[in-house]
Amino acid sequence: MREENCIFCKIIAGEIPSRTIYEDDDFKVILDVNPAAKGHALILPKNHCKNLYEIDEQTLAKAAALAKKLASHMKEQLQCDGLNVLQNNGEVAGQTVFHFHMHLIPRYVGMKNNDLLNWTHEEFTDEEQDAICEKLQIK
Ligand code: 5GP
Ligand code: ZN
Q: Is 110 helix (H, G, I), strand (E, B) or coil?
């Protein structure tokens, strides 16, 4: 299943070139065209779905297993010192391409973008945290 005008569907179909590091029946893994770090890669499921809300559980489980495999591979090949797995859903969360993808971002001691994911924490009172916890508890 593909969607017209989806850039990742076009990459998967080979209509737009990409640097592919892995491919199987379900996924294509490419280098990000604007890498945050050396080896920044994107896991793309071949079936178009927008985001985490839409992806089926089986594909997601396979993507997680693939992320694990690639993490070890990257550590071995790139000698990175760490790695972030990042997955954005919705514009407010930083999603710019609305075809589900997982970022694999190798991290290196002393690299330029080392504050890549630094955020300042928000303040909540104990009462607010209790209420949030209560709201989110799955019983
Ligand atoms: P998002 O912000 O949606 O989580 O991430 C989208 C990512 O896709 C960005 O990091 C961006 O650099 C990457 N990207 C966008 N267009 C292309 C493209 O045509 N080719 C490749 N390889 N990456 C792309
Ligand atoms: Zn797509």
A: coil
Q: What is the mean pLDDT of the chain?
A: 96
Query: Given this model, what pLDDT does residue 111 score?
Result: 87
β-pairing verdict for 82-86 and 20-23: unpaired
Please identify which of the residues 40, 101, 103, 121 carries the catalytic annotation.
101
Cβ contact 27:49 at 8 Å: no
* Residues 86/75, Cβ–Cβ less than 8 Å: no
Whose CA is closest to atom 13 on ligand 1?
Answer: 32
* pLDDT tens digits, one per residue of 55-100: 999 999 999 999 999 999 999 999 999 999 999 999 999 999 999 9
Catalytic residue at 101?
Answer: yes
Of all ligands present, the nearest one to the C-alpha of 43 is: 1
pTM confidence score: 0.95
Mutate to test the pocket of ligand 1, among 20, 30, 33 (most ligand atoms within 8 A of CB): 33
In the three-class reduction of DSSP (H, G, I as helix; E, B as strand; rest coil), residue 75 is classed as helix
